[in-house]
User: Fold these one by one.
Assistant:
Number 1:
Amino acid sequence: MKKFFWPLASLAFFAATLIAWKLAADARLINPLWFPGPDRAFAKLWEWIATGALWEPLGKTVWRMFAGWLAACVVGVALGAAIASSSITRKLFQPSAEFLRPLPASAVLPPAILILGLSDAMIVFVVAFGCVWPILLGAIHGFRALDPRLLEVSKLLNFSSRARVLKFQLPSALPDIFAGMRVSIAIALIVTVASEMLSSQPGVGYLMLVAARAFRSADIFAGIIVLGFLGFATNALLHKLEDRLLRWRVP
Amino acid sequence: MLEAQRLSVSFGAQRHVLRDIDFTVAEHEFVCLVGPSGCGKTTLLRALAGLTPISNGAARFKGEPVLGPQTQLAIVFQDYGRALLPWRTVAGNIALALEARGIPAAEHAHRILPLLKKFNLADHAAKFPAQLSGGMQQRVQIARCLAQEPEVLLMDEPFGSLDAITRQELQDEVARLAKDERRTVVFVTHDLEEAIYLGDRVIALAANPGRIAEIVDVELPRPRQQLGTREDPRFLQYRHRLYKHLAH
Amino acid sequence: MGSVVPLSVLALWEILSRIGLLSEDGFSRPTAFLAAGAKALADGTLLEQTAQTFSAAAQALLMSSILGIGIGAILGLFRPLERAAQLTVDALRPIPSVALIPLSLLIFGFSRNMSAAVAAFACFWPILIVTTSAVRGIDPRLTEVGRMLGFSLLHRILKLALPAAIPGIMVGIRVAAGIAIVVTVTTEIVSNPRGLGHGMNLAAQSLQADLMWATLLWVGVVGWLVNWGLERLERRWLYLR
């Protein structure tokens, strides 16, 4: 029984927040044009689900996000392994990657639109560009961090370079790579939605922008709930994957 | 089988770690290298394994110079935690040696099982190193080295990080193993009693620079016993004889 | 040696553009956009846009710090409250800041507040979390001293909890400062007609590729400088302690 106390208390607190929001909206303490009550937001969300209007834009947003992120994972890990392999390549390439990391990923949207036009491919490219740097830097760090003792073991066992990378360096680098992947998946969601808003490509982001212009605040909140849920779900999935692949770690 | 021929190792012009080490390890022999800290015994072992470059003289394995690390000369490290792959299970770590030898995956299980049984690891085959005690991790490392089917087993203070009771258990396991399988073993330790207990021959090294101080043939009956052998008057004689080499 | 790669890229870009392999409309060329950048700096447009972006980011950082540190301190001091609020925090935190752009547009229209509100949401969470754990990690001895001396809650927060938690909080603020700039620029690119983000958009829309690339480069340099400056500041702060 005790075990359920805090989760329940947490739920009660959350419910209380929603109720307070509703009461404030009804009493016009907050502008109901901007903040319709949670009941209207959830009703609108339900309508989207029931009429099927949610699935196509959501599907597009999800596909762009994952396509870009996965591309960034593959490129980031492969390049990271290559760059980490010698100190010369590291000195050449790592500073550039470090410089590009703080760059807002959305900042490459205007050039991308100018060059690639308004399209899915453009969005996926921008997402991949934004996601690759944290993964690349994580991979470089991870591939370098192989315990020298394990490196000796790999030599003693006469493994080829390729076997060494696959059996020793890659698993050893995984924790750092996952750290980069966690950061990038958040970037992927943000950049996808931002791209949709800017380029008016059909997706959840565009849906919400259109609603803003038409003052349909219930739609906006329904969209916020959907995106919040998407953020939560992708984080949880990645966490589960990480727990499975890295279950050997010292607790 | 394994020879050091006037072997010298220096790091730079000033640091002479080993000077003119000369001895031969015969097949099936259990040789212990003992000496005070810093005398270069680990460096000597690594030089014999092909991990540390030799400045003068040579290390020879079956007559050929040792040019680099090879699977025939398996080395068991003291820091077992760092020598095992943390992301592989016990079985996976032992399998690593089989993969190195190019043995197809289908045969792995039936080769790993006897090793697991020999080291009492059968119940822990699916565990990760982080879930094991120090003694068990060291057993896994030894099992992996044996899976390499090496000609010589080199052991670098393998029990130095373990508690006294585990140390004694493992001493007996290694001694038994070496005799049952007729292994050639070179065992480095700073513990004189351990060296006399385990070895057919004990080579005592002096420090600064590392050189052979004395070689003693240990003629104590086998199988050795923790209580019986250590109280044997000859054991104590060997101890007295070699003790002076351990003092700084 | 780190500059070899960027310089080679620029050189290659210049060459490919001149021989016609890269279209000038979209790609421009380094000599052109560096010139455009110099001009935009000289006539003040870049600096004005930078000031707009920075002022919105600073406003966001200020608001999120006050709220984040305040609420974080309370949650850190009262464990039951923190546990009760867990679900609410976990439900709100994953909301991507860009999701709030339409709402912010609705409420604030095109203005500095619009960008600042969205960025403040993004900055709030790291500061909240870092403050909560920093305050919770305070030596309980200190709390006992506060209660013995009869301090009110406000005083316990101001005189004991916060000063002890400051190093941890500073790390959160450094992270948040970086986030503030990134999110502000993002809101400007997506919708708000002010600041550097808008500058880039405007240049792209009026097909001034050289100005667009110049602004992008400027954003990169500024972002990197801010990051570097904050790291130096944090290291100096830690060193002083």
Note: The beta strands of chain B are 2-11, 15-25, 30-34, 56-61, 64-65, 73-76, 152-156, 184-189, 201-206, 211-217.
Number 2:
Amino acid sequence: MIFSNEPQTVHITERRPVRILLTAVALGFLALFLAVPLVTILSNAFSKGLAAYGAAIAEPDARAAIRLTLMAAAIAVPANLIFGVAASWTIAKFDFFGKTFLMTLIDLPFTVSPVISGLIFVLLFGAQGLLGPWLAKYDIKILFAIPGIVLATIFVTFPYVARELIPLMQVQGNDQEEAALTLGAGGWRTFRHITLPNIKWGLLYGVILLNARAMGEFGAVSVVSGHIRGMTNTIPLHVEILYNNYNFVGAFAMASILALLALVTLIAKTYVERKSKA
Amino acid sequence: MKPLKQASVIPGFGLTMGFTLVYLSLIVLIPLSLLFFKASGLGWKSFWEAIASPRVMASYRLSFGSSLAGALINGGFGLIVAWVLVRYEFPGKGIVDTLVDLPFALPTAVAGIALTTVYAPNGSIGKLLGAVGIKAAFTPLGVVIALTFIGLPFVVRTVQPVLEALDRDVEEAAVCLGATRWQTFTKVILPAIFPALLTGMTSAFARAVGEYGSVVFISGNIPMKTEITPLLIITKLEQYDYAGAAAIAVTMLMVSFVLLFGISFFQKMEPV
């Protein structure tokens, strides 16, 4: 848009000093709240040099946290991806009673505080919870263990894919699928060859955001994890422990991994947005 | 009578609908309904005591007050950011536009420790504020800063598309009819983007009320002074007062539903 060769209409705008002032205010605000914290993460992570940074990341508890975070995301992302595709197929391709209500229910996890998202699993699986005594009898550990972390992660990232795909598939309509079916393609084949290519960018967009949240979730995971070092600590929880122990280099080193993930997420998101518009 | 489902040649309704309902029930509906079940076990008197004790009331004042302050700050500055991004050209605009979504992408705990370090008395901005006698970190102001950060993208991202779609001929017509630039803005542009602005501010507010990770580090968590409501849920849990935690959670959830209703109302006001 910026470099377009088409003749541009000259619009009325503010006077030059006003334009400069507004731009300065906007950039100042963003610098204060976004750029300065971002730079702080990196400068603190490397404040004792590269060696200290490397040592902080290679430490066994840190490595365990990285593994657990990757594992939680590796389960939550495919689970909610499959759900998102199924839910948007049902909602976008068919007309049925209660559709709006179903969409509201799917969006529910976004309106719930992260802390409450963790709390509900404590109420379900905790020692005093609904299933607590039964789980204790068979010695199954969900809360303060990996399954609890995975469940809380799935809960907070629940709507991401469905929310991207439903409006996209609604706009695209059913014509192409109907044509394929009329020509004799089966349902699965129609989905793979017609629907999937049409929704791939939207799908990818949803997965990028889903993954970022899954790896970065703090509140919900913090409630269900029990903070057992080297066992149930994800990267964000490990950041908290190191920070509270005044190990700032370690905390910011771990935080810098997540900050890098955030930057990669933003770049990938921008790329996919451009692709899907093209 | 209208059938529950319209006939269609597309296959897979039973399978996808069945899977959606089972997964939704197991992950979201059943766990969430436990909240109401647990809180209802308290009875009215204990429920009221749990949600209206002085410490909890102080946390509502802080949570709702600072969320409102954050939403208002974002309403003003977010509008300016959206305006500058849509209307002006400057070097690095693409990067700035991408960076606006940082609070959505940056894990809250990371944002929390970064903001605390920046705004602490010995931090880069905290030092400057300290020189003029303002304490930011570990005070309600710190909470406002964190909640402003977390809500920043909402206003920009709701106002931006509406501003882009705005027909500029109308502005030119206003000028031809003798309006000054400021009059054009307040009488022509602002009414058109106002519903989007309200939607963005309400979304930012709703997100801020439940926010935990970015706040707990900078707030300092001093009882009666800088404790946010989500933190009190965790405090109750740590004391094994599950029902009390559920009672506060139900109260917060009700507030979220009201806000959600408000958002859908503002969205309907938007010109399509």
Note: Chain A has 13 helices and no strands.
